[in-house]
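Q: My collaborator sent me two sequences in one message, no labels, and asked for predicted structures for both. Can we handle them in order? The first one she listed is below.
A: Yes, handling them in the order given. First sequence, followed by its structure tokens:
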Amino acid sequence: MRVVVVGGGFGGLASAVRLAKTGHEVTLVERSPQVGGALAEVTSEGFAWDAGPTATVMPAVVRDLFRKSGRPLERELELVQHEVVREHRFDDGTSVRLPGGSRAAQIAAFDELEPGLGLRWADHVASYADDWEVLRRGYFEQPWTPDALPRDVASRLDSREVLHKRLRKTFKDERLRLVAGHPFVAEGHDLRNVPAWAGLVAYLEQRFGCWTVEGGMPRLGTALAERLVTRKVTVLTGTDVRDIVLRGGRAVAVATDAGEIAADAIVCAVDPRRLPALAPHVVRTMPAIPPVVSYLGLEGDVPDLPHEVVVHGDPLLVVRTGGRAPDGCAAWTVHGRGRLAEDLLRALAREEIDVRKNVVVRLDRTPRQLVEEWGGSPHGVLWQGRATVRQRLGPTTPVPGVYAAGAHATPGGGLPYVGLSAALVAQAIGPA
């Protein structure tokens, strides 16, 4: 079967190598000069930063991808676990370093914040164990049909309970609410619109831990690009797909500036709004807007921070320290959300992380610039209540012959979910 994959981000790469391994003739089309999407690297004057994610949970998703598309991951990349998922700093001057992969370590960390908080946190995380097992089988790891869901899956996806309400009911201490809600706030969501079940990310962090790729996450994109060659995938970069060509109500090709590319199946691994044939089917959804970002090259003595520090407040500030830099220097990435009435570094200095005098390189990106560079939001679809889960496309779509993967598709944004979306598409299409 001839398969055309539209988009060369993680979702497109993962879909292409999986489908090629099962015998399909795969062509991947990417509008940028190179593949990788948010797995790309930003470089300047000897400094390098991860353009998108710097870590991931659920390393089994990446391991499964490499195993199902060829050589095992360990033969090409080294996954390294972060002991601390992230450090949270609160406006009352307290802080907590959230460990990953250990219930006992999380209890101890929160008890240091205040005795008794550890068990409250652990009970909250444990409340998601059943949700994970049910949704893993019926939503995350198996192609699903919204109108034919098992009862236990449907009861969760259709629940009216939102995360904001659950956290206020569960925790009297605002700091625990901030920690539990942070992954969603950081991606631009309003907790009043996020389904309560989605909070199971706290369970995933505790159970599976937080991992990165030795040498930076862009190496994951590079390894997958090399696997495209191994699997004999035809890669067309610098090629913009204008639309999907339909004949007799079925997709038969993609239209590009250079002409049509015939296909028996098409995988949309970009924001469906970019393709007129799919846009009407996602008209009720909105993209989650990226934060303001500053890539910093620093010299001299800089604070010794974990790989990620969250400073809660308005604005919300996130510092990631895992970039690559010349000897004696450091590469940080700073994200900002909320009322950004002043420069990001000035706001950071007010929180006693002052590196203004250490800056030798600085690259700033607005949310609009990031969306333009990547052709969409790497955070995917904005949560707008329980209906959002059914408004995403994927793995199948209402257009016969068209499938959907990536951050805008089922089951959502973030490397683990995007990796699962590619696996779902491969299952839905099946072997050649």
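Q: And the one she listed second?
A: Here it is, processed independently of the first:
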Amino acid sequence: MHSPAELSAMWDVKQVFDPQNLLNPGKIFPQHEANSWVEQPPRVRMPVAADPLPLQPGELLAPESDEEAAQLLAQCTARNRPVLLMGGGEQAQAPFPLPDGNGLLLSTARLRGMREDAPEDLFITVGAGTPLAEVQDWLGRRRQQLALISPWPEATLGGLVAANINGPRRLRYGALREQVLCLTVALADGRLIRTGRPLTKNVAGYDLTKAFIGSYGTLGLLTSVTLKCWPQPRLRRSLLVPVEDLRHGLLWARQLFPLTLVASALLLCRGSQLAGRYSQQLRAAPYVLVYTAEGLAADVESELAAVASTLQRVQAPEPVACEELSGDDLWCELLRGEGENGLRAREMYTAREAIPVVVRLGLAARDLPRWLIDQQQLLAGCDLVVDVGAGLLYVVIPSATAQTATLLENLRAAVPADEGYVVVMDQPRPSAAFEVFGPPSPSLELMLGLKQRWDPQAILNRGVLLPPRR
């Protein structure tokens, strides 16, 4: 069922989480009954080419196949040459600073295109370097879609999975972790593994797929991604509510949340230019509450009728109905820095300084409203998107100036590490000015243990997610 490389990768996980083999011995790996020990699977490694990598620091590697990618990583590990992974084309900027010394760039630009298309089974497998927009266009020709979205047009599927980017559609279709069925991954030591299978109910062995989602390329190079496909909705319609006061907006959103059966967005936004251009009524209000529903026409109309009735009951302003604008559109607009404060920053600062710093803040959904109300002064001057259902707040700091670091530090101080997190999603690149992930999580030792098993020389995205090897 599993290849030797996959079985050895699962054994690595077992050694990190249960080194003494106390949990269900013999359940997955063969067990010798006489002395009750588990036999370690043979260590599988790709042969390393004898020729050295004839590249100067900073040069670009662009493998054309999974096997070539695995071989290149094995060579880099053997010669201790750090590798910074990147997608979005060979001319794209690196997302993080290049490691010092003899580091190399590795692009997934040539690991792209269709690999397996199963429209009847509602899944698709593509190269990790394939842009999301390209796949959406392909699926749209047969009225299917991926339940993914990105504010950045050049985003690749491998990049979205590695960074665990979730948009408002999470409310309707589930998180990205639920959309990814399986991955093909090249490990740093040259092993090429396939995690998961293209099945919704897949419980064979360890679910290694989840380990790579949000790993920022520190555990392995994603070479292909298999994702769920969904039918395009027959109808998508939004109700936009002008909101004068943050407290009222959060209260109304809480009243609407129990109605979200076919809703694909329930957002409270500040700074949207799109909403303001759509209606004079919305332009005059500092906030807009967005409720987008999609699916069968009868379901959408019924749910939005219930939403309108609830808004009337709580004495909210009359909503503006539209089919041209959705929660996705406002989310993308603001995260790209095209909101009110972002556009103003472009007039005040240099081109580099005006690039926004996008921060994602996560708290329990029940705690986020009160936290927001308490921190209104701290967030003044920033465009905001509150994803009510997910308990996420997106803060768009309109310029990358000296004050940005102070604001970021204050945000992290206001969110206890054991209750939430503050992550920098986007910033001027390449840049080391702003700490991306903040204080280490309580699971750091486990993360470092798995990193040591799969990338013992720490060549992959060195220093990006995990602290330097001790």
